[in-house]
């Protein structure tokens, strides 16, 4: 997949980012952001748990179309250390809609993708996918 545009907000504000007509990389940075990929196979990138905090501060992806269709839109969480209790940078494990049982897990229920990076078994970040699209493990870059 060749990217046609990279759209990044480095501020801490609430931003609305709009992709172009092709394969875009969108990264809202910190703050509550609304992301529109537009047509094409877009990547929505998150580099830190602070990029999309749980609750009212979470980012919203308005037009995610992944559904395991390669190519398709994808969510990139590879920049986030999945387990802050262990040295190094670990990858997440996708558990569907089940409850967290350990650090390093991501789950998707209703329209919210959540990730747990520590031992408290609660969400450390959340991303809302408007319209509750189907989300499968291959839609997520871990």
TrEMBL record:
Pfam families hit by this protein: Peptidase_M10_C
Membrane-spanning residues: none
Subcellular location: Secreted
Listed GO CC annotations: extracellular space
Residue ranges annotated for the Peptidase M10 serralysin C-terminal domain, each copy included: 28-142
Gene3D superfamilies: Serralysin-like metalloprotease, C-terminal
Keywords: Repeat, Secreted
GO molecular function, one term: calcium ion binding
UniProt superkingdom: Bacteria
InterPro entries reported in the protein's UniProt record: Hemolysin-typ_Ca-bd_CS, Peptidase_M10B_C, Serralysin-like_metalloprot_C
Protein name per the record: Hemolysin-type calcium-binding region
Species this chain originates from: Nostoc commune NIES-4072
């Amino acid at each position: 997949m060749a990217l046609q545009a990279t759209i990044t907000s480095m501020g801490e504000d609430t931003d609305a980012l709009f992709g172009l007509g092709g394969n875009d990389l969108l990264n809202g940075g910190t703050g509550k952001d609304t992301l529109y990929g537009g047509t094409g196979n877009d990547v929505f990138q998150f580099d830190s748990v602070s990029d999309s905090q749980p609750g009212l501060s979470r980012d919203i992806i308005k037009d995610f179309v992944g559904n395991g269709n390669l190519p398709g839109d994808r969510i990139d969480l590879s920049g986030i250390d999945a387990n802050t209790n262990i040295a190094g940078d670990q990858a997440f494990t996708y558990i569907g809609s089940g409850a967290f049982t350990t650090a390093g897990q991501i789950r998707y229920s209703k329209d919210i993708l959540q990730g747990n990076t520590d031992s408290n078994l609660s969400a450390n970040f959340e991303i809302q996918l408007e319209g509750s699209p189907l989300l499968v493990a291959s839609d997520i870059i871990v």
